[in-house]
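Before we proceed, please read the two lines closing this message. Let me know whether the structure tokens fit the sequence:

…
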Amino acid sequence: MSDDGRRKNPLSFFFLKQRHHSVPTKKNPSSSNIAKPKGIFGAPLEYGAECGSITPRGLQVPDPVYRCMNEVIQRGLKVEGIFRLSGAASEVDQLCRLFDTPPTYGKYLDLSSYDIHAIVGTLKKYLRSLPYPVIPTAYHEQFLAATNNIQQLAHLAMRQLPRAHFILLYTIIELCAHVQAHSRINMMNPEALAVVLAPVCTGLDQSLRDMFVLKNKDIVTDIVQANARWTDLWTRMIQSHKELLDIWSIEQTRLPPVVVNVALPNNKMSKSDNRSPSSASTSKQCGVIIMRKRGGQHYQRKHTSWPMERRTCLTNDDYCLVNPASYDILSVRRRTQSMVNPSIAPI
């Protein structure tokens, strides 16, 4: 089917092959021959995560997700209709532009003056912009088949989804848990949240918008039925958020260590690395901090056998995202130096 045909087809989300890239898998999250885009809106999730932030649990997520989630937790949990009500379109567009601007992509953006509904709208708009939804199309049938089995859903997400997509799903369910703790005030029960999140996180959102202008009743019926199935699945996941998060937290210790490109502490930096804390740095100026959760299964393994990942370093104070209470900082490597043991003061 041609690109034009797929754009016009409201059921394009049912196709296993996406429009521009191969289907993401655990071994091949994104095609290596695709040039990195300048912005993170509309870019593959892996690119947004590369220049994102590390959560207190050590998970790497894009900043539109991390910053908006934190703002909701700080001042949005007791707001009636959170996630359901829309913010001003102009404010949402402004926030999206700021989060899409290099080199920091909104990492240090002050969100305190923005309406909380606009902040949630920005988060939803970022999720909609992903070329592959939070739960990619290739995994839809597996997830829907496991709707009534939470343990199967938990292990399916953990072991089958591409890592960046699993981490994003984990983060969204964690945010839902916070919202549910105040559901009597914010009036957002599991089903109300699922009605909002199911289409956004599965790629059904655009099809639901398009179905009002469709004349084919069969297609409209298929869209409505698919949305109902996903809403039911998301309702069950949100209702069982504690069980999901418990399973995922245990399984997290089996994941590879978190590896973050960061600027070295002042006492480890050369004279040529005298940059201000807020100035952007290039990858050649970065060190690499290798961390593993304390009590992890392979904590004693030698660094020569550790899996390695890369993350763009934006500023000197990125290393402060490491929380020594949860992680041991094992080593720092400069690209031009051998491995050294750092001494970083607690945050």
Observations:
- Residues 1-22, 27-34, 256-347 have pLDDT under 50 and may be disordered.
- The longest helix spans residues 217-239.
- Strands lie at 53-54, 60-61, 258-262, 287-293, 327-334.
